[in-house]
Amino acid sequence: MGTNLVNEKAKEQTMEESDVVNNQELHRCLKTQRCLENTSTSRKRRTCSKLLNAMVSMAIASHVLHVQDSMSVHAFFYQINTARHLNLSQGKPWRIRKSGDARVSVPSYYSKLEDHDRPLSDRLSLYSYNLQNHRSQRNPKTAKSLSFFLRDNPIIDAQNDSDLPSNLSQALMLATRTAGESGDYRLILHLVESSVKFANGNPILSPRIFGEALNSLSQTKANASKLKHIWALATSSETILTHPLTAFELNIFMKALAKLGRIRSSIDMFMQHTNECNENVYIIPDAYTASTLFTILRDSINADQKQERESVPQSRRTDSALQSRLKNVSRSPAWQWNTAVDLLHVFDFEDFRWNNHVYSTLLKLHEKAAANFPQHINGSEITAAIIGDMSQKNILPDEITCSLVVKCIGDPSGNPMAWKDSIGFLRRMSKEKALPMPNVFVYSAAIVACARCSEFEAALELLEEMRGDTRALLGATAHGPTAPAPNAWVYNAVLLAINDQKNHRKRNHNPERNKSRTNKGRVELAMQLFEQMKSDFASGSENLQPDTVTYNIVLSIMGTENPPSEESLISLLDDMVQNGIPRDAITYRNAIMASPSGKRTRRLLLRCLDDDLLITRSLETLQGKAANAMTFIFNSALLTAASRGSLKYFTSIVSLMQEHDIEPSDDTTSHIITIVGRSGNSKLLPKFLSALNEDVRFVEFQSELLTKTGIWLGQDWLPKLSNTHYYEATTVCLDDNNIVDAHRGFHTMKSKGIVPHSDCAEEFAVAYARAAINIIRGGNDVIHQTAKMPPKQLAQNAYRIAAAISRPSPSTMKLVATSCAMAEQWWMAQKLLRSVQIMVVSESDRLLNSKQILCDLQSNLLRECAYQGNITAALWLVKDIQHFAATQIHPKNLEVLPSEHDLDAMPRSVIDEISLEQSGVHMRPANWISVIKAARKSGHWRVCVNTLQFLRPYVSKTNPSYSGTGDDELQWKNYKKLVPALVHATACLEMRSQYAWAVRAIKDWVSWSGRRAPPQAVLSAVRVLSARGQGNEAKDLLYETMNHPSILGNKQDGEGQEEMLYCAACTALHRNGLYDDADEIYVSGVSSGYLGYSFRPGTEAMVLDLHGLNVALAHSAVRVAMRQLTTMPEGQKKSELMIITGRGRNSAFHLRPVLRPEIQRMLLEEFYPPLNTVSAPGNMGALIVNADDIHRWQEHQEGQKGARMLAVAAAIKDFSSNRLRKSIVLSIEENKKTLD
After folding, report:
1. Shortest CA distance to 638 belongs to which of 593, 600, 679?
2. Which of 359, 833, 1120, 1156 is the most exposed place for a label (fewest CB within 10 A)?
3. What is the mean pLDDT of residues 564-578?
4. What is the pLDDT of residues 356-375, one digit of tens each?
5. Stretch among 683-692, 832-841, 1147-1156 having the lowest mean pLDDT
6. Strand partners, 1179
7. What is the mean pLDDT of residues 532-543?
8. What is the CA radius of gyration of the chain?
9. Which residues of 960-991 are buried (b: 16+ CB within 10 A; e: fewer)?
10. Which string of DSSP letters, residue by residue, matches 186-205?
């Protein structure tokens, strides 16, 4: 109670003294105001005015400070009096800070007026006040004063002043921030060094001071060595720190190094100071440390970076659960992701608190790695592992994490159906109470996933669900509240999905969905969605107003299909003007790219010149090249004209740029180089480059350029040449197959000290390879200089250049290998094939389509083997391909590819036991067919027969009874692709007269496929059987083929196949002299209705019409007709026979009949007695056989028939009377006597 009474009395006394002082100060203010009114000179007036303002401010401050200590009030007004006597010649009037703090900041130079016995904490607090007030001016004078003060006043004993550490920290943090904002990194270093000297071994420095210093240094131009110097002071001065360094300082240090591009140094520092074995400084990381690390790794990802990275040193700790899951999924070509996974064990301790922010940054790292590296696959598995780890740690994902999950699992690389996973997780969010309800961002992420998978129909369905039109269709009404209303960004995402170029490709992975796809074009869909968006906005949805991005996407879509009309483009631009939608450079660029003609492009350029808001809008919203709106738009127009090869409109655009003083850029020069090369004037490019460097020769070059191209360039209009222009000129010459001028450009680059890019060497290799291919194929686009060089030498040059490049692209090696194969340089082609195989095996390969390129190269080489009939090279390639496919599945069993000198080193037992289809680089059916073609041309029938066995699994899958698929149309398409294998195999067997193997191959094929054998293969077998005199087997094969049911009907098996088979079989038998078999097949064809036969009685004779029959069928028809005459009644036997052969109007030689002489020769030579013919009166296309000749032939045939019957009867009589047996026994005994 006594103490309280004393305190209350002290407060009352202080308040009374404060009121007295306030009254005195108000009196002084009034007196000063009267002096100000009576002052004449401006200088004195300004002095009094400053004094008055200071006094008024201090009076108000003293009123606020009435509760403070009375001695503080006296000290406060002591400074007022001092400032008044000095006339406030320096600094600004004191003021109360806006934050409401009643303390007053005092300039640093007044500290000299302080009593030297005053505590250091009070002096430092005065520095803090002054630094706070002067910070907005970015004036570092006070900070410099503090630096010198700390340097010159090292502390001896800090135990007597408890406020010293906090006041020192506050002053130093304000000083370093001021120095950082002013960009003075030297002052920051001096402040830190001075503070270390000031501490003088006493633990008064807070680690926060070093963190603030590092953060301020990152705002200046200080390099990494300055940052490391500050960090070295912090880690080596443990005795002066109030407590050890924390994760806060480490996070700032890591971010500062990463900001300078020292990513690996930042990671090394993290690993060094979070290692428990570190004896010097061990810092316990927190959640913000993990998110900082993942953010640094994410920001450092670049698609052009090198993928090799030394492995992270292994820790003694075992892998965490999340780390082991992620390692089991896959290893990424992005070293940043692998590093993040390897460092997850650092955060595996009990006190570490995982949160949504850490998981979100890890998901963002995975998302960017997948976006820049297509080989970073298994997005759904990685995301599932992260979500599973969150579930184990009982961390519920928030909306940001869920939106990232939807994005990541929708990655189409490695899984084209990933969009279904994204939508499935969205549905889970609506069903499970533990997950937040999906908001607009989650739906937008799902729509973006659909767009990346080219599923714009699914994106449209999600949009309709958000609009509330088709919620029942997708089952959204069964759970949770309604979907959020869409905004303009959602509509833009759907429009981007429609704009995807992959929407019109064929998709075989989902045939049912293909059937339901609409046939509407993208332009129509986009315009419908655009009109729907405008109608919803007109209905009251304010966040659905189409913006500049919406119009830009619609304009981009309009240029993807048929060229739009000029009215539609202009109407969209007018609509933007009427609705107040600003236009930017992208708007006019898309409109120009969609414009189909040069005249419309010119009108659009004139329109953009009159758009006043264009430049302002582009500067505010766009970055990079698009910020310079006019140059960007005109360069787009030049690019369009150059890509179309329109030299006339390109010239007009250049003239328009010069007329309106549009500043050209490096892209302008590049487009001029392109149009000059595409117009067939690539020889001008070396002169063009030299003319831009030498002003003396520019006038001469300009006249030549104007004559050949019509382009007029001002002497100083184009900017200076860059190194890229030399490379582009060389590339354009190579594209034009102008290798001579390309070499000149290459030597010019070397003379100027320009290091050629590796792509330049690849362009030379591609040019040589393309020239060799064009010469071999007989192309006309090879100029005279390259035509002098033989294709073999061109291919060798391409191979040498490709072999000299450290890392050529697989596409380049594919083209060079193809040229070597076409030039019959197979050993070069084989080496390049193996190099591409090594690229596929390498984990550092940056290309997703490397396997596809390898498959294409294998197919190209085998097709060339088939074209050349080189079965030896084909077998080499097959062995290499199968061996490599086996190494992809079992790398431990097969470690090294066989060399060209040891091609028999492949262990067949291993390859036969595995399914090579799992590798993705195995022999495809088309490749086996190429091997059969090569074997056919070289006559290796055994290779053909054996290779058919490799196609058996593929043929069996096309069997209608195969349960693998229910799509008959797809089976039929696959079957048609396999048919050439049997056709070429039977053709080879026909050539080698292997009729038994031909029949066996056809029967096996029928049993595999369950379909009728291909007619070409059957005819090959029939021809070889006929040539070997096996008429009966030929007939049996034909009848077996005809009796086999047609599974898919004549429409797919091919109409007229039966007629072709009968006709070709009859012809083959006829040519080999098997007339009876030919006649039998002809009669079978006629009876089946596939062949024609017109034999009818006429008015005076029997008429046989041979129209539409070839020679073999005509012969069979005549023989059948003559036999039919023998069976007619007696009245018709003695009639004449008229054979209509035609006049030869449809013959190869007009009016030179083929059947007439053949039938006449047949009747005279093949019939006995011969049948004479005469031309029908008035009809040169008909022959008449006399009735008497027919009657004599019939009598002869009956006599021959009687003789044959008597011979048969005698043979039967001998057999029945045992005469034949006795004669045989006697002959055997005589033979034995002769041998004895």
Report:
1. 593
2. 1120
3. 82
4. 898 889 888 888 888 777 66
5. 1147-1156
6. 1176
7. 80
8. 48
9. eeeeeeeeeeebbebbeebbbbbbbbbbbbbe
10. HHHHHHHHHHHHHHTT-S-B
